[in-house]
Amino acid sequence: MELVANYVDYNSQQSLSAVLRWCDTAGTVPLRDVADVAKRQKLLEQWTRYAVMRSIKLEMHLRGKEWEGLFADSISGTAVTIHPSLTRVGRTSYTIQNKVTKSDSQQPLATVETVMVQLDASLSKAVPLTCSDELRNLCRDVPSLAERLPETFAKRPATEECYLWACEVRPSDCDLLGHMNNANYATLFDDARHAAGYGVDVKLAHIDYVLQAQAFEKLTIAVWRGMTELHLNLEMINAAGATVARAFMVTFDPLSRL
Q: Pfam families under this entry (predicted)?
C-alpha cells in the first residue's frame, strides 16, 4: 500500500510515530486476499471496530539525519510503501509484520511487528477470533523481530532515579475506538525521552500496551537508562499510579555508522 509522507513525518524526532501511523493505515490490506466476500467484510468489521494493539516491535533502518535527508528535496510529499504480512494467528490474537520502504527505490525504512488482540463489544475482554481458518491461510513465514527485543521490561526504579515528564491525552490523540491511538503513545514516549536529554536516534523499540488511555487523562512518563548507554526504559503511568504502557528502546551507537 502506497502512502505520501508529509508534515512532521520529515522530522526524525517524529519518525517512530510516523511509521506507526502508516502501518495502521495498511493494517487491513492482508484481508484483500480473503476470497469469500461475506467473510472478508466480517473480518474487516472485526479488525476495525474490536481489535486493539497489545504490543509493537519496531526496527528503524535509517538514523535521524538520514531520515530527514531522504525527504529533504520533496515539495509535495514523499511516497512510501507498506508491505504487510500476516505472520501468526492465535485464539484471540494475531501478528502482522510491515516492511516500510521508499516507493521509488524500495529503500528499507523500517520493519514493524504488531500483535493485535480481539475484544468484545465493550472493548474490555479478549474473545476468540472469527474466521480463524481463513486468516491462517493468509499467514506468511517471515523472520521475526522477537529475538532482537526483550519480551519482559525492566522494573521501574525509585522516583528519584527517573526523569518524570507530565502530559495529558488530547481528544485529537484518540481514534474511533475512543482511546489514544497507538502511534501517539510513541509520540509521547519520544517527547519524554527528548525532554530527559536522550535525543539519540532510536534503532529498535518495543512498546507494550497495558491499559487504554482516554481523552483528557493526565499521565506521567518515567524515563531511565538501561543496562548500557544505548538502552533506554520508559513507563507511562496514570493518575492512579497504574502502568498504562511501557517501552524499551535501543539507540544507534553515535560512534558507529552501522
A: 4HBT_2 (PF13279)
Domain boundaries defined on the chain: 2-147, 159-251
CA distances from 207 to 43, 119, 204, 216 (A): 25, 19, 10, 22
Cell output for 88:
501468526
- Under 8 Å CB-to-CB from 37, ≥6 apart: which residues? none
- For the domain made up of 159-251, give the CATH fold: Thiol Ester Dehydrase; Chain A (3.10.129)
* φ/ψ of residue 10, rounded to 5: -75, -20
The CA-based dihedral angle spanning residues 198, 59, 174, 38, taken in that order and rounded to the nearest 10 degrees:
180
Are residues 174 and 181 in contact, defined by beta-carbon separation less than 8 angstroms?
Answer: yes
pLDDT of 45 above 90:
no
Share of residues in the chain with pLDDT > 90 (%): 60
E strands in the chain: 2-5, 51-60, 78-89, 93-102, 108-118, 163-168, 202-209, 218-225, 231-238, 243-251
Nearest-angstrom CA–CA distance, 80 and 102: 4
What beta strand segments (E) does 70-123 contain?
78-89, 93-102, 108-118
Q: Mean pLDDT over all residues of the chain?
A: 90
Same fold, 2-147 and 159-251: yes
* pTM (two decimals): 0.92
Domain covering 2-147 assigned CATH 3.10.129.10 in the classification: yes
Q: What is the pLDDT of residue 197?
A: 93
Please report the pLDDT score of residue 60 as a whole number: 95
Is the distance from CB of 178 to CB of 214 less than 8 angstroms? Answer: yes
pLDDT at site 255: 72
143's CB contacts (< 8 A; 6+ apart) are: none
